[in-house]
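Morning, I've got a small favour to ask if you have a moment. I owe you a coffee for this, so here goes:

…
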Amino acid sequence: MWSYQHTNFLVHQIPALSDNYIFLIQDYHSDVVCVVDPAVAEDVKVACEKLNIKPTHILNTHHHWDHTDGNEELIQMYDCEVVANADDAPRIRGISMPIPANGSLKLGSLNIQTLDVPGHTLGHIAFVIDDALFCGDTLFGGGCGRLFEGSFEQMWSSLQKLADLDEKISVYCAHEYTLPNLRFARDMDADNDVLIKRISDDTQTRMKKQPTIPSTMALELQTNPFLRPLNQAFIQTYNKQNNENFNAFQVFQDLRKRKNTW
C-alpha cells in the first residue's frame, strides 16, 4: 500500500488481483472514507485495519466485476453507501446513492465532481476531487480503455473532457498497464524525448516494485498516444509516416484500432 497527500485528503493505493488498484480517500476533516472501485473486499478490510479507518462510501466508476466485486461484502461489514452513475444502477450491486453522470456531491468536506466519460462502457464516470482524478478504465498510464460498449466518438470525447482538466491533476487509474502501453506508444511516437524518458523512469519504478500510478495529466498529454492527437505537430508527423490525411479524431481511431491487435 502507498499513500499520497493532497490538500484536503489522503489517498491510499491498494494493489489487488494481478494489476488492479483500489483507492481509499481519507478526508482530513471528517470521518468520511471513500473506496474507489473495490475489486476485492478483503484487501480493503486489511488496509483499513492497518490504517485504523472504516470506509463510509464506495465510489464506482463503472459496472465491471473487477471494480464492483467487493461492494456487497463491504456493505455488510461497514454499512457503506454506494455512489455510482444513476444510469448504471441496474448493473452495479448495492447502489444506494445514484448520481448524475455529470454532477457534483459533497461527502464530509470532499467536493466531488462527476464526469460522464463513456467509451469503455456506456455508463462509465470519473470522479474529480480537488487535484485528483479517479478515472477507472477510461484513461490509463500511457493508454486508454478498450471500447467494450461505447463508440470511438464517445471515447474520443471522453478523453478530451479529461484532457481539459488542470495539467497538474494527479491521474489515479485502476490498472497497472503503463509499461506495455508505453511500448506501444514508442512504436507510434518514436521521436518523443519525453516519452523515452518516461519509459526509462517507469521501468526503474517497476523494477523497484513501485506503482507508476498516479501520473499527471501533463505527463499523459505529452506521452499518451491516445491524447497525442490533441497536438497538431503529432498529427502532421503521424500522417506523414502513414501517408494519410487524418484529423485528430481519425488519428485517435486509427491508434485505438492498432492497439487492439498490437
In short: The mean pLDDT is 97. The chain has nine helices and 15 strands. The radius of gyration is 18 Å.
